[in-house]
Write a structure and sequence with these properties.
Blueprint (H helix, E strand, L loop, with lengths): L1 H27 L9 E5 L5 E10 L2 E5 L5 E4 L6 H11 L1 H7 L1 E4 L4 H5 L2 H5 L5 H5 L10 H7 L9 E8 L5 E10 L6 H10 L9 E8 L2 E6 L8 E6 L6 E7 L5
Antiparallel strand pairs: 1-2, 2-3, 3-4, 5-8, 6-7, 7-11, 8-9, 9-10, 10-11
Helix pairs in contact: 2-3
């Protein structure tokens, strides 16, 4: 009787071994990388393409278009915002440690609901970079500081200037804008866009940094007429308590 069941038992045992082998082989094969969402990529010359990040390999970055075609490019051809996004994907631990956030441009309905955004008046911050003699000729800065609250809607506006060889106030070095109340970070970024008229690529990237014993969010890749833009954090609620704008040193 035992001999009559031997072929059946052997066949079942072989099927089991084959199934186990297929499972082991499937586990040994490299699994495809998790797909990334479609987003708009911008080249350094302003061209855009809708695609999903596939991988970075051998000095090239591969993007997958919605139709499935693959586009290959290099770091030198992509915008700084795109490179920061790729670095966050490739090295999430470092990105988490440095904590970089991105903010797209707010819609009109969003800005209509931003309480602090509506309080302040629009100005063109670039014009202050061109002031040359703040002791005598250029009164625009003095008027802004004097009328910070009643006309411009800021709780306080202050500044520091580079000194000329003659020991007088020259070009603006730093400007400080304190809102009437701390502003949520999303709203503060939109205020940088619209209320200071700082032209920036979309989305705007800000990176968390330590600043004089506190925390701040630093604007990434500011325009060349600014050397640094910081949003100082109110430790009690995490909102932005001050906008610090730094200008390059004169030649």
């Amino acid at each position: 009787m035992a001999n009559q069941h031997t072929p059946l038992i052997t066949g079942v045992f072989c099927v089991f071994l084959l199934a186990h082998a297929f499972r082991a082989d499937a586990q040994a094969q490299p699994q495809p990388a998790a797909s990334h969402p479609q987003r708009v990529w911008t080249s350094v010359n302003g061209n855009t393409v809708q695609a999903a990040f596939e991988r970075e390999e051998d000095g090239k970055i591969f993007l997958k278009r919605p139709d499935g075609s693959i586009v290959a490019t290099t770091r030198a051809k992509l915008s700084p915002n795109d490179l920061a996004w790729i670095d966050a994907v490739n090295n999430p631990a470092q990105a988490q440690a440095e904590k970089t956030l991105s903010f797209t441009k707010a819609t009109i309905s969003e800005t209509n609901n931003m309480e602090h955004y509506r309080k302040v008046r629009r100005l063109i911050i670039r014009t202050y970079a061109n002031l040359t003699n703040n002791d005598r000729d250029d009164k625009m800065l003095a008027f802004l500081e004097r009328d910070a609250l009643p006309i411009f809607g800021w709780g306080f506006v202050g500044s520091q200037c580079y000194m000329t060889p003659a020991g007088k106030k020259g070009k603006v070095k730093e400007m400080y804008f304190r809102p009437q109340e701390p502003v949520p970070l999303r709203e503060a970024v939109q205020m940088m866009r619209d209320k200071f008229t700082i032209v920036m690529p979309d989305p705007v990237l800000v990176k968390q940094v330590a600043y004089y014993g506190g925390q701040a969010w630093e604007l990434q890749n500011p325009p060349d007429y600014l050397s640094r833009v910081l949003l100082l954090v109110d430790e009690s609620n995490g909102n932005i308590k001050r906008f610090d704008i730094h200008f390059p040193r004169p030649n």
